[in-house]
Amino acid sequence: MGYSGNPTTWTSGGPVVSPSISPAMVAFLAMSFYNVIELNFIIFSSFKRRQGLYFWSFVAATNGIAPHSIGFLLKNLLGSRTFGLYITLVAIGWVPMVTGQSLVLYSRLHLIFYNSLGLRIVLAMIVFNVFALHLPIIILMYGANASPVNSWTHPYEIYERVQVTMFCIQELVISGVYIKTCYSFFDARNIINGDAIRKMQHHLLAVNVLIILLDIPILILEYTDMYDLQTVYKAFVYSIKLKMEFRILNRLMEMTTRKRPRNNLGDSFPNSSTTRIHDAQSTGTGIRKVETGTLTIDCEAHRIEDITA
Questions:
Q1: Buried/exposed code over 41-69 (b: 16+ C-beta within 10 A; e: otherwise)
Q2: 203, 162 Cβ separation under 8 angstroms
């Protein structure tokens, strides 16, 4: 998170706060705050059913960006002398911003990935990293910021790099599983819709690759000790990732609502009214799980449409 020291320096006259922030940081912060406002508007206008893990992870990830950024402002721009205040704000925002994003990816994966064991493993990884990465770094962060120089700083700097790397790997794993699953998911659709679905497939894959590439500068800034710039850039990147998630969701919605060809009896290809689809036990994502018997091609439509319907 880039908070490996207290901004206060000590002189013969007592503590002096030395705030510092560059124009690039101001730009990233301003865009992050704007994106938070826009995302909240998009969330509450798009999700008609405001329940389930997908909705709440979106809300948490979006609204974690603001306190995280405000904490940074208090420390570096306003020069707050109360380290407990800005560290608390950073921690309160950082946890939902980072893990909320992973839960958004998990929930989106749940729409097209039907391997229940694989989904449980992904969820277990996210929960494990909450305790293994979030909690230790928050404790170290309070200690490292208690005074300009103390014994907490070096352990914090080491673990800071560990957690940044591990969270990037976590999102890479989830996105990688999604990209791999997309091929099977779209191959079934190609049978019906052909070129249109292939173009959509390429678009979704490109967006997912871009989301992965946005993490590379975070790692570069972290390992080059540009902590403050890394912190504000990270908040901006997470807000961009969330906006791109809506592009992916809109594409999936477009695909599932695309007019289906008709068979020789004049009926459209079977959907929930003509195949053996029934509601199963509600899952943690708040998305209805369905079984289709012998025909699975429209299964994903019901999962996706249940989010916004």
A1: ebbeeebeeeebbbbbbbbbbbbbbbbbb
A2: no
- Residue 225 pLDDT greater than 50, yes or no: yes
The CATH number of domain 8-257+272-308, selected from 1.20.58, 2.30.30, 1.10.10, 1.20.1070:
1.20.1070
Q: In 3D, which of 186, 184, 197 has the Cα closest to residue 254?
A: 197
The token pair that represents 157 in the structure block: 């700097």
Per residue in 15-42, pLDDT tens? 444 455 678 888 999 999 999 999 999 9
Work out the mean pLDDT of the chain and round it to a whole number: 77
* Distance (Å, whole) CA 64 – CA 96: 5
Sequence letter at residue 275: T
Cα–Cα–Cα angle for 72, 76, 79, nearest 5°? 115
> How far, in Å, CA of 160 to CA of 206, rounded?
30
286 phi-psi bin (left φ>0, alpha ψ -120 to 50, beta other) = left
Please calculate the CA angle 80-84-87 and round it to the nearest 5 degrees.
Answer: 85
First to last CA, the chain: 37
pLDDT in tens, 168-201: 999 999 999 988 887 776 665 555 556 767 777 7
Show me where the domains of the chain are located: 8-257+272-308
